Amino acid sequence: AIGLLLALLLEFTGHPTWYVLPMLAAAVVPSLILAFKSIPQLNTLRRRCRILPWWARLAIVVALVALSLTIKSVFNLNPRDYAYLPLLPAVLIAAVLFGFGSGLLAVIISTLAADYFFALPEYDFALTEWKDALGLATFAIIGALIALAVEEFLNFGEPRD
Questions:
Q1: What span, in angstroms and rounded, lies between the C-alpha atoms of 45 and 20?
Q2: How many whole angstroms separate alpha carbon 137 and alpha carbon 147?
Q3: Phi, psi (5° rounding) for residue 121?
Q4: Is the confidence at residue 106, as pLDDT, over 70?
Q5: Which residues contact 127 (CB under 8 A, 6 or more apart)?
Q6: Residue 11 half-sphere exposure toward CB, CA atoms < 13 A
Q7: CA torsion sign, 152 to 156 to 158 to 161?
Q8: How many angstroms separate the CA atoms of 17 and 7, rounded?
Q9: 93-104 residue pLDDT tens
Q10: For residue 61, what pLDDT is reported?
Q11: 123-151 tens-digit pLDDT
Q12: Considering just the CA atoms, what is the radius of gyration of the chain in Å?
């Protein structure tokens, strides 16, 4: 029944079938993030990552975004064709490991890289099409909200300072 509902939703909205994955991820990721807190080894990794010096966190965030862009290049995938959604994993990982600030930094770097490498005209920071400007703005807003939501989910139930 859920598969039929998703298929009808995709058919009526005109979206490609791979849009089911982000919809399923949106439904499952909050539970996974809360489960992440209950695994001691992963929670220890998160605490260790958050005490790294700022320059090390910055280097890792830049490397995550670069890895994400490299994977897209290897598979000849243009994030512009998919509303820049394929750039979100770097934001999600940075927010989980380092917190909201690093997730927001990943959003900024990803947005600038997407503008430079994928938005028309390519290899230029000029935005000449409204579709690109709207897509990048939407990606930036959604990415920032995801980074904030991850931070809040991970801090759920913990005392505030």
A1: 31
A2: 15
A3: -75, 140
A4: yes
A5: 115, 119, 133, 136
A6: 6
A7: positive
A8: 8
A9: 999 889 899 999
A10: 95
A11: 888 877 778 888 888 889 888 988 888 88
A12: 17
Exposed, middle or buried, 157 (CB in 10 Å: 0-12/13-18/19+)?
exposed
pTM summary value: 0.76
Q: Amino acid identity of 132? A: D
Q: Is residue 144 within 8 Å of residue 104, measured between CB atoms?
A: yes
Give the phi and the psi of residue 33 in degrees, each rounded to 5. Answer: -65, -40
SS3 content of the chain, % helix, strand, coil (to 5): 80, 0, 20
Q: 65-80, pLDDT tens digit by residue?
A: 999 989 888 888 777 7
How many DSSP H helices and E strands does the chain contain?
A: 7, 0
In order of 78, 123, 132, the CA distances from 115 in angstroms are 12, 8, 8
Amino acid, res. 78: N
Size (the chain), residues: 161
Q: Which of 7, 141, 35 is nearest to 83 (CA)?
A: 141
75 and 34 Cβ atoms separated by less than 8 Å: no
